[in-house]
Design goal:
Blueprint lengths: L2 E5 L3 H12 L3 E6 L15 H4 L1 E4 L2 E6 L2 H9 L3 E5 L13 E4 L16 E5 L11 E3 L10 E2 L22 E3 L4 E5 L6 E2 L4 E5 L2 E4 L4 E6 L5 E2 L4 E6 L12 H22 L1
Parallel strand pairs: 1-2, 1-6, 2-5, 4-5, 6-7, 7-8
Antiparallel strand pairs: 3-4, 8-9, 10-17, 11-13, 11-16, 12-15, 13-14, 15-17
Amino acid sequence: MSLVIIRGGGDIASGIIYRLFMSGYKIVVLETEYPSTIRRTVSFGEVVYSGTTEIEGIKGVLANDIEDIYKILEDGNIPIYVDPNGSIIKELKQIAIVDAILAKKNLGTNKNMAPITIGVGPGFEAGKDVDLVIESKRGHYLGKVIYSGQVAKNTGKPGEVLGYVEERVIRSNADGIVKPLYKIGDRIEKGDTVCQIGESRVTAQISGILRGMIKEGFIAKKGLKIGDIDPRGVKDHIYTISDKALAVGGGVLEGILYLTREMEN
């Protein structure tokens, strides 16, 4: 069994999961107890809250232990297991580990964890702490496999959509518990109150469709990204994996196939 462990179950990780699953790999996803996922309709990490989810025909199921993991794999589905520290990694027989947490830093993934190790985005150095790194920044090099060195530096700015950059991002304006006032997929107008953070109200800076919103009840810190608005207004985009996620997933697939061939030669 060609097993790949994915650390993180957000929307970019789910693009990787989709690419690898459709290419014949078995996947195990490791998540935190309280995922801070924004695009929850296309994130396998949402399973931690919901128990199951289906994204573009692929089913994710919450696993409680290693027996559950193997049962879910046998059923042809994706097990999601709460294990932020990766404790179960030593019990599985993976050919590769992909760190797709996107924390902008390495939270502990290293080359001793699997025959193939891949880091996504900033915080990793190919050839040092992992074998390969995948560029996650939008632009000409999105999805590129870095065989030596690091990806482009993190600018801290979100990608541009129809000329909007920071305006499309919804951030917490206070510390507190998030209470969304709209559902993902709803139409939002500029100036609408999108959610409450404790007693504070967060308003939309642009009009569009609510593309993502953090789970209700999440305890947010001031400045945390908690949602985003898509000015393009295409509702189908809310329920399908993005071009960015698929590009990164393609880079991961290339990296695994390349290193597999290298090991066989």
